[in-house]
Structures are given as structure tokens and as C-alpha cells.
Specification:
- The structure is a single chain.
- By secondary structure, this protein is mostly helical.
- It has 16 helices and seven strands.
- The strands form three sheets. It has a three-stranded mixed β-sheet with strand order 3-7-4.
- Helix 3 packs antiparallel against helix 5, helix 6 packs antiparallel against helix 9 and helix 9 crosses helix 10.
- The longest helix has 44 residues.
Length: 420
Amino acid sequence: RSLPQRRGRDHSLGMRLAARSFINEVNARYETLHRAFEEQFWGTKMALAADMYSVSELTRTKEEMEAFLADEAKLSKSRELLAQAETAELSESEVRTLKIFERTFGCYIMESAEARELRATATRAEGALEDARNKMTLGATMPGKGFVEMSSVGLRNTMRVDPDEAARKACWEGLRSIGNFITSNGFIELVRTRNAMARALGYPCFYDYKVNQAEGFGKEALFAILDTLEIGTRGLMATALERLEADKGPAAKQPWNTNFVLSGEITQKLDPYFPFERSVGSWGRSFGALGISYCGATMSLDLLDRKGKYSNGFCHWPQPAWLKSDGSWQPSVTHFTSLADPAAVGSGVVGLKTLMHEAGHAAHFSNIRQPSPLFSQERAPTSVAYAELQSMFLDSLVGDAAWRAKYAVSRQGQPVPWPL
């Protein structure tokens, strides 16, 4: 009886070692490919001048990473090892890791050769469009000044605070020019390619494909959820618009006027209490008081608006946080941005809110203690709602009266007045 038992133990050990080897190989290779892509993402989005950053390298590294995740052999191996988990006496951690492999690979594998070719075409089109948009000359033809170059952040801020309606309308028209620009530079073709790819995979459109991969249900289920929100608040919105028109006149409902009449005066009065140079300190003290730790993470922050920089805040992780197989902790390396213009009225509070939001993402993902970097990356199968929950809670602090009473302080040391 001892010989069969020994053979059984040896077989079980062999399967266990094979599973561990596979897990370690996938984790190490994904970490390398993820880092290469994210470094290119940061360099191109931030318009960094180094020669190592380019749209072609961004496209290449993205395709390499997605090809790795779309390898059918890895999905088959993950399922094979999961089926053997009990016999191989795999640990709970190893089973959990193989399950995230299975879920992730399943999001990227495309059995249709047509779909794979369309995905590659779409990836190249995305890079070309993003490059063109980053190089677009954006601005507004301002009254008495002619064309003034401004970023989308500057245009939106001017619409919010400038008392001259003609200036606000000019900035609104400047923002609208982005739509004409991208539709003339490949956006429509990109949408067609994405939708064709999704249809080749059996989805009605690209949006339905993306929702399914990230959330696990389709767009019809999502729209049903959103419909309850819209229908439930429709009466409130109608009443609010009627009140706005009654209080401020019909022009208040024009898109270049609404933000100004709702908040322009208040924004100007609040501005002295949100100097952007204190934003990093406010973030650090707030998160520290909440007991939030970054678990040894290294963070690169790019907080000011400038020409060529991607005009939306984001947080990405060239190095995901994870627990290695030897039990050691790999801290995250985080890149995140804000878009403040310290000279612009109202920019301080907007920049701070963006900073708190992206710092919330960084805090969330730097605290994910799981046995694979695939647990702590923001693409599918990570839920968008899950990823945004913590960051949106933390940016909401900036509008909280109790928070403002403590952290909204002028350069002269005066807290924001209670009536304001």
C-alpha cells in the first residue's frame, strides 16, 4: 500500500509545483509587459520630451500586453490547474490566483481572427487620434483679443468665472471645436472599427462589449439601472431649470451661461481659501487623519495644466502592488495628475478635487494585497464602479462643510467664513 501512496504523493507534488511555476511565470511576465506599456502611457499622455516615449511604442507595448492576456493556451492551462486543485492540494491563495487568471484571460481572448485584426487596427487608430488631439491648437477667439490659445481646462474655467457672456460663449465654441477636430481625424472610423470588432464577437456594439468585460452584464442591464436614476430625478431637474430661468432669465439656460450663473460669484469668493500650493498638504493631512496609508508606494505627481498634457486627470500604476510567492510585498509605483492653473480664479478648488480623486485611486490600488499583479490593475475584469467608489468618496470631502472649515484656509491663515 505504501508504494501507491508514495506515487500519489509524488504525483500531487508534481502538479502543485507545476501550478506554482505557471503562476510565477504569468505574474512575472505580466508585470514586465504592464510596466512597459504604462511607462509609455505616462510619457505620451504627459507629453514628456524624452525620445523613449512615442505613439508607436505606446501602440507596440499595448499590443504585446494584450496579446499576452489573449493567449488561449494560458486560459486552458489555468482551467486545467483549477480542475486539479484538490488533487494537487493547492492553497487557497493559489486557487484564487488561478481564478483571476481565468477571468482575465477570458476578457481578452478573441476566437474570431477578424475580431483580432480589427482590435489591432483600432489600437493603431487610437494612438494616431490621441497623438493628433495632443497636438491640436485649442483656444478661443476672445472679444477684443483675437485668438487666445487655451487648454480645455482653461476654456472650462473661463466659462465658469468670466463675467463677460461673449467671452464665455467664445470658450464654449472653442470646446466644441474638439468635436469637429476629432471627427475629421479618424474618430468616426475608430468607432466603426470598434463596433465591427464587437459584432464579430457576438456583441451588438463596442459599448456592450466593454460593459460586459468590466461589469459582467450588458448595456441593457446598465441602462435599466441608469433609467431609474434619470426617471426618478426628472421632475427635480425640470423644477430646477424652471427656477433657474425664473431667477436668472432665459439666457441662464444657454450652455455657456449655466455654470457661471450657478456658481460664478461663489467660485470667486471661495477662491482665496483654496490656494493650490496648499493642496498637497491638504491631501496629506486629510488622508493621514483618515488613517490611509500607501503601503510604501512611490508616487509621481504631475499637477499643473500645460500645453500638450492630457487634459483629464488620471491615475495609473506602472508597478502594481501585490504579494509575491515568497511572501514579500511589492509596493506600487503610481503616476497621477491634476490640471491646476494657479493663476486662474477657481482653479485651486478644481485642482484640489482632482488631486483628492486621483490620490484616492492611488490609495485604493496601493493597498490591494493579493497574490498577483492582475488583481491590482484597472482594466477588465476590474469593475469601473468598484474602481471609482473610493476615489469619488474622497474627492467629495472637498465640498463638505466640516472639511472646508478645517482645510480651506487662505494664504493669510483665515478659514473660509461660515456664511460663505
